[in-house]
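Dear support,

I submitted the protein below through the web form. The confirmation email said the job was done, but the results page showed an empty box. After a refresh the structure appeared. I'm attaching both so you can tell me whether what I see now is the final result or a partial one.
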Amino acid sequence: MPTAEAPEDQYTAEPFVPEGAGLAALREAAAGCRGCPLHRDATQTVFGTGKSDARVMLVGEQPGDQEDRQGKPFVGPAGKLLDRALEEAGLDPADAYVTNAVKHFKFTQAEPRKRRIHKAPSLREMTACGPWLAAELAIVEPELIVVLGATAGKALLGSSFRVGEVRGTVLEREIHGRAERLVPTVHPSSVLRADDREGAYQGLVADLKVAARALA
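What the results page shows now:
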């Protein structure tokens, strides 16, 4: 008899997402997610954090090295820069719900104990993780989603998304069956890599000010 496919071979988190669960139960269930092969090498699942009634949801790409070690999103250098930019734009980071499109760290490593290098998740991996993001959106019901970077944009808006074409604008789209307003911008890690870091940072702040005005 043929053996059943493992959930990770099916590339969907659906079997692991408990119906009708609150954020705490979702976070607990996500710790055991085997919906795609990324769980094998990551230290742990990095689920979203924040208030269940947050007005704004920030969606990034995936956990980085520090997030993977600490189990929380945006706790590394990019997260610190994002908090500073949010405050400068008039948004309180403590009032936001922060999560990623993909909940496990994807990386390459030349050899053990060498630095782990971030690797962009595939569309298949983003789609596999979609049920977690859909569940978070259904509970939080944010007034606005801030889309941080191209990967988050593709996960929410489809593979044709280009952050440079729509950054700093308010979009209205149906996401996972809900009418949503979204403001796309760059991922804060791209600011850290930019040649003109100050210019890139001011661009991020300008986009976040659009989000702040949309919530006003």
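Response: this is the final, complete result; the empty box was a page-load delay. The chain has a mean pLDDT of 94.
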